[in-house]
Each structure stands twice: as C-alpha cells, then as structure tokens.
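Sharing a chain and its predicted structure for anyone who wants a worked example. Both blocks are below, sequence first, tokens second.
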Amino acid sequence: MRSFLFVPGDSTRKYESAKKTAADALILDLEDSIAPDQKVVARGITRQMLDARNPEQKLYIRVNALDTDLTLGDLAAVMPGKPDGIVLPKCAGAADVNRLALYLDAFEAASDIAQGTTRIVTVATETARAVLKILDFENMSPRLWGMMWGAEDLAASLGATRNRSDGRYHSPFILARDLCLIGAAAAGVVAIDTIATDINDLDALKAEAVAARQDGFLAKAVIHPKHVDVVNAAFMPTDEEIAWSERVIAAFANNPSGVARMDGKMLDKPHLRAAEKILASRRK
C-alpha cells in the first residue's frame, strides 16, 4: 500500500474518476468534505460506492469523530458494504481505537463479516491532545493497521495562523509528523504521510513523498488523482536500493553467525531487516 486517495463520500463523479487511478486505496470521506446537512445523504451514496468498487483497490471509510454523535450512524450505513477499513479522525490514543473496535465487532456480526477483518487507520495528530496520546497504544486493538498524520486541523487546535512557510512545516508540525512515525513503528503498524495541499506543484509533491519514504513512512495520503502516480513512484525502491538489498541478503545467505562483511564494512541483523523491507516494498 503506497497511496490513499481521498474521495468525498457524496460525489459519484469523483468516485468514478478515482476508481480509474492506480491508487492502492480510496478513502471515502464522510467527515470534512461533507456539509453538516448532507451527512445522511452522503452515507447512502457512500454505501452505493462500496457496491460499485474496483476490485483492485482497497476501500476505507473516514467516519465522523467519536465526539460528534455521528460515528454509529456512519458505521450502520456503510458496514453492510464490507469496507476494508475505517479511518478514525481526531483519534486520541488506545481508548478511542478500542471503542471503535468494539463497534466494529458488533457491526461485523450483524453484517456477516468475518470477525476482526475490518482494519482501523487513525488520523493521529489533529488535536493537541491527540498528539500527546500518539504513544498511547500499549493495549490497543489488533485491528489497528495504520496511523496517519495531518497538519490542517492541528493548526486550528494549536491556534496557529499557518503550519508552514516556503514549503517547510513549522516545528510543532514537524514534531507531530515525527511522533506519528515513531508511534506507528512502536505499535508495529503502517505510518502514512499527510496530504500535499498544493495540487499543481508536482515537484514539491515528489520531494515530500521521497523524503517521507526515506524517513520510514510506508504510504502517503493524496487529495487529487494526478498525485497518485507521483506518490506510487516515490514509494517504490530505487534500482540502487534494490541492488544493495540483494547483495546484503546474499552476504547473509551462507553466514549463520549473524554478521557479514560487504565492501569492507560489517553488517548485522538490522541491515538484513532493512534489506528485506526494501525488497518487500516492491510489492503493494
């Protein structure tokens, strides 16, 4: 999984366009992109989208946050369509993940879905409290599959007038990004980089995506179909990385000691794990 393309849950036109892209997953949105008086209508449209899916793409639903009193209604509408996962906004730690997991237990049983198969992806940095809870995943549900960070809602939570200057995030938002990456690694789940907001600056998007992959993110969220191919390419290992990884694995192949030498340098198990990860990333 490299790219998660957001699609408004009330736009069949945008959904049909998104289905034609190479996005690994679509996030059908019932939250920010839907006006308050259109929430119920969007649920029905999103349910129809689930029935008309592209089998090559995963489908996730971003529900409304747990404190809105809309979450259960969202789940009741979409779970019969068997989405691959639920994206939980404004998530503040294990308690929120586990609460959603309990809801999913019930809805899976009601919809004849195999127990535990619906994944959870959290948007983990949208409020100051959520940032402080990023590392609070010690007793989380095994449904948690990924953690995404975002800077737009966090700016409002902090009272910031802007989150970046000259294309670079300000320090509070870099902290949120780094904590999301570290928190995901500690929890053993996928770290997902935030969207690029400038739709037309594809060079900046590429640089942002490459930097995210190099830092350890395994996927990136996008908001426009033309961002998908750029992100997919950026999250594929380079020929140089693949060649290095193959040589590292070969160096360990006949060496039971746990260390190896290559190009006059000592290699140990972390190098082997890194090489295996790079080669595995060639697949979705």
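Comments welcome. The CA atoms of residues 10 and 38 lie 8 Å apart.
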